[in-house]
From TrEMBL, chain A:
<keyword id="KW-0472">Membrane</keyword>
<keyword id="KW-1003">Cell membrane</keyword>
<dbReference type="InterPro" id="IPR002696">
    <property type="entry name" value="Membr_insert_effic_factor_YidD"/>
</dbReference>
<comment type="function">
    <text>Could be involved in insertion of integral membrane proteins into the membrane.</text>
</comment>
<protein>
    <recommendedName>
        <fullName>Putative membrane protein insertion efficiency factor</fullName>
    </recommendedName>
</protein>
<dbReference type="Pfam" id="PF01809">
    <property type="entry name" value="YidD"/>
</dbReference>
<comment type="similarity">
    <text>Belongs to the UPF0161 family.</text>
</comment>
UniProtKB/TrEMBL annotation, chain B:
<feature type="transmembrane region" description="Helical">
    <location>
        <begin position="44"/>
        <end position="66"/>
    </location>
</feature>
<dbReference type="Pfam" id="PF02096">
    <property type="entry name" value="60KD_IMP"/>
</dbReference>
<feature type="domain" description="Membrane insertase YidC/Oxa/ALB C-terminal">
    <location>
        <begin position="46"/>
        <end position="269"/>
    </location>
</feature>
<dbReference type="InterPro" id="IPR047196">
    <property type="entry name" value="YidC_ALB_C"/>
</dbReference>
<feature type="transmembrane region" description="Helical">
    <location>
        <begin position="12"/>
        <end position="32"/>
    </location>
</feature>
<keyword id="KW-0472">Membrane</keyword>
<comment type="similarity">
    <text>Belongs to the OXA1/ALB3/YidC family. Type 1 subfamily.</text>
</comment>
<feature type="transmembrane region" description="Helical">
    <location>
        <begin position="186"/>
        <end position="210"/>
    </location>
</feature>
<keyword id="KW-1003">Cell membrane</keyword>
Length: 102, 342
């Protein structure tokens, strides 16, 4: 069961790693430019953590499309899942919760 | 690492943009050949066509830039609210306070209907253009049988051949890079190196101007400033790296774009500096000097009405909020004055 969950979460954790790398190396280069809070990369990161790779990437892409010089900007959070299914580590990896072993 | 191979791969996705890019190139090439009577096969004609393409792209981006400048002006009005939020979180360095502060700041911007941040669009938008230009240059060569193939849309077979044979100054093929010419054609390496130096120099100068002259004291105190300073040294490194692999023709795109930024920024820093920045103070002083000289020329007492501006400018940073008042009062007729309109 744990192995299955690990495999199930592997794609999104791979994305988390890539986004963390991007946020650590590339985005500091051009500084604060995003008209929204959280910034597009932080938004995409959260969206992938909460909704998985497919829905997360779609949400992130839609956000980047909305973020342009004529956008109003402001606070724009990732939609919450009704029941959070997984735990998120400090680094950002998504892991199965310890309790509630199905 | 075959960078060009990866870039050509991206290029296939960008076919529609490539169509437009090649059409613009062909258009400029036609104009330089038929209107200015230049040699169509000369490297210079093709280089100027690439310069023309850059100018079109950058001109199309002017509205984005103007928008950004305008919202930066508006920052003056919301400065007190911003200060309030900053004071509230003063000295709090933990992650949650920083996040809460950013959140509140964003909410405030939205309420005020302005936003000093430009989104990443201006940064990203040139990428597809550049990555369409690269394969256009790279693909302009004969196949194994020695036949040329037309590009996308208006880019005909003859033009492809002409671009392939185009040598800058008669010696440096536009499609060559330092990487391909290393060890065989040193003249190409030297020309490419000169372009890289110009590119890096213009970039460094632009960034230095921005960082040293056009930033308000508040920005200088923020973490963003540190990042901007970092950019000052990292971007030239990127240019040196890319100058190694990219063909000469493509580097002319970057060079023109950098020069455009340099001039655009010079004009903005001179005429519309960020309120409170060093450049703004310099502008105040310049305007005050002019007013002073005008008053003297009219034979008036410069320490009269005209002299006030000079003193205000000499006050230093405290004079910055008076920026609006430095604009000359437009003369109005007596009738209009009575109506109270402007």
């Amino acid at each position: 069961m744990i192995v299955l969950e690990f495999l199930w979460l592997l794609p999104r954790n791979a994305c988390v790693l890539i986004l963390r790398g991007y946020r650590a190396v590339i985005s500091p280069l051009y500084g604060d430019v995003c008209r929204y809070y959280p910034s597009c990369s932080a938004y995409t990161l959260q969206a992938i953590q909460r909704h998985g790779v497919i829905a997360g990437v779609a949400l992130g892409a839609w956000r980047i499309a909305r973020c342009h010089p004529w956008a109003k900007g402001g606070v724009d959070d990732v939609p919450q899942r009704r029941v959070p299914r997984y735990r998120i580590t400090d680094f950002g990896f998504v892991v199965a919760t310890g309790h509630g072993k199905g | 690492m075959d960078l060009n191979g990866i870039i050509n791969g991206i290029g296939t996705v960008l076919t529609p943009i490539k169509w437009v890019i090649e059409a613009i190139l062909v258009g400029f090439h036609w104009v330089f050949e038929n209107v200015f009577g230049m040699d169509g096969d000369a490297g210079l004609t093709w280089v100027l066509s690439i310069v023309g393409l850059t100018v079109i792209v950058r001109a199309a981006l002017i509205p984005v830039f103007v928008r950004q400048i305008k919202s930066q002006r508006k920052m003056m009005e919301i400065a007190p609210q911003l200060k309030k939020i900053q004071d509230k979180y003063k000295g709090k360095r933990d992650q949650f306070s920083r996040e809460a502060m950013q959140r509140e700041t964003m909410e405030m911007y939205k309420k005020a209907g302005t936003n000093p941040l430009s989104s990443c669009l201006p940064l990203l938008i040139q990428m597809p253009v550049f990555f369409s230009l690269l394969p256009t240059l790279n693909e302009a060569k004969p196949d194994a049988q020695g036949h040329f193939h037309a590009g996308v849309g208006l880019f005909s077979k003859d033009l492809v051949e002409s671009l392939y044979r185009a040598n800058l100054f008669g010696v440096a093929p536009l499609k060559d890079s330092i990487q391909t010419a290393w060890g065989t054609e040193w003249v190409v390496v030297i020309i490419a190196a000169v372009i890289v130096v110009l590119m890096t120099g213009s970039q460094f100068f632009t960034q230095l101007q921005l960082v040293s002259k056009n930033m308000s004291p508040e920005t200088k105190a923020s973490p963003m400033y540190r990042q901007q300073r970092m950019l000052l040294y990292v971007l030239p490194l990127i240019f040196i790296f890319s100058g190694f692999a990219f063909p000469i023709g493509a580097m002319f795109y970057w060079l023109t774009s950098n020069v455009w930024t340099l001039v655009q920024q010079y004009l903005v820093i001179r005429n519309l500096p960020t309120p409170g920045s060093e450049a703004a103070l310099a502008r105040e002083a310049r305007l005050a000097r002019k007013a002073h000289a005008r008053a003297l020329a009219r034979g008036e007492d410069p320490d009269g009405p005209g002299g006030i501006a000079l003193e205000a400018a000499a006050d230093g940073p405290s004079a910055a909020p008076k920026r609006e008042t430095t604009q000359r009062q437009q003369p109005t007729s007596k009738n209009r004055k009575k109506k109270g309109g402007r």
